[in-house]
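Subject: Class I SAM-dependent methyltransferase

B.,
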Amino acid sequence: MKTTDNLEIYNDPLQYDREYGGYDADVRFILGHLPPAGSVVIDLACGTGRITLPLAEVGYEVTGVDLHEGMLERAREKAAEQGLPVRFLQQDCRSLDLPVSSQLIVMAGNSFQHFLTNEDQDRMMESVRRHLEPGGRFIFDTRNPVPSELAVPDRYEVDAEAGGRRIREVHTETYDPVTQILHCTTEKFTEDGAPLGQDAISLRYTYPLELERLLRQQGFRLETMYGDWSGRPFEAESGQMICVCRIEEP
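Prediction pasted inline below.
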């Protein structure tokens, strides 16, 4: 599977906003790690602008980048509604060619897990490094691979809402320990059980020391790793790895 084939879960930007638009723990964290006022900030895998727009609101020159044009269209609509001069670009994070560089690049929403192979991760990190100014920071998150949670396939149901109606979702998650990829499928049904279709996503898990080595090989120093966006210390059972890393200066 290619990274570019792994996007169908994002085909409904309005539904994405309904589900995730209210989440702001990462926004609050990033607001506490900003460069001087008025600086350029680059938001990778920006989606519908959940992080991009709050950064622009506080006076930063923000460029949002995403691979999914539908998500970007929604982000542009929201920026126009709020009168925010944000640049949104459709590019692959593995081969960025942006007209700006920055002291801070962010990538949240566990988007790091979309880079499914070592080559994908390397190319993405190389792209980030090319667009960071000397001494600049890269802040991103990725889920922590807790073995007890990944060892057994998981299947569960949730009630949800889509298009103003109640639906039932059946989620199936199966982890492949060889590729370190979690394969997730969501089947959707009406309340009376009629099928509405399904979507799928695959997510790569990276272990803490593996991640630290990747960063070092790509010219970054891991300053801090937190266990969540509130800044709790990282522990074995933490749900996430929040990485604050700085490009190494000569």
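The helical segments are 13-20, 25-31, 52-57, 69-82, 118-131, 147-150, 208-217.

T.
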